[in-house]
Design goal:
Elements lengths: L8 H17 L4 H8 L3 H13 L3 E4 L3 E4 L1 H22 L5 H11 L5 H16 L1 H17 L1
The structure holds zinc ion.
């Protein structure tokens, strides 16, 4: 198994989730990671071993699974992407479940430039609520026609 240069999409998901669990509970157990990603514990063990060999996580005797600086860097980057995308999508009143699934899907694939544009666009609409309402009205009209 060669060391990962850039973590795979699922490695990013694991690091994101491990970081969230550690922030929320102080630790990340295999069972919690498995439950939260809806995968089997055996899959978590395999991925954690890969992440450990690639230098993203470590096992510490009394603390259990921890993120290295490198792992935390990836997790924070994904969390920022996730936060930017949910800030953007929440403007348009899409349902939360669809939104969440779409964000998990695309958060791995956006370039920094695109992400910055979406963040600026969210900021623009937040500062110009009348423009946002006008846009939403055209969408509502379109939907009522179809
Ligand atoms: Zn995410």
């Amino acid at each position: 198994m060669p060391a990962m240069t850039r973590p795979s999409q699922s490695a990013e998901d694991y690091l994101e989730r491990i970081h969230e669990l550690i922030e929320a509970k102080g630790y990340a157990r295999v069972a919690d990671i498995a439950a939260s990603l809806k995968v089997r514990a055996a899959s978590v063990t395999v991925m954690v071993q890969k992440l450990s060999r690639a230098g993203y996580v470590e096992y510490e005797k009394y603390r259990g699974l921890i993120l290295t600086d490198k792992g935390r860097g990836v997790a924070r980057d994904i969390q920022n992407r996730h936060a930017t995308l949910s800030r953007f999508f929440s403007l348009f009143g899409l349902d939360a479940a669809t939104q969440g699934e779409d964000i998990e899907g695309i958060e791995h694939h956006l370039s920094p430039a695109t992400l910055e544009m979406l963040s600026d666009l969210a900021g623009y609409f937040e500062k110009n609520p009348a423009t946002l309402r006008a846009f939403q009205k055209t969408r509502a009209r379109k939907r009522s026609r179809s």
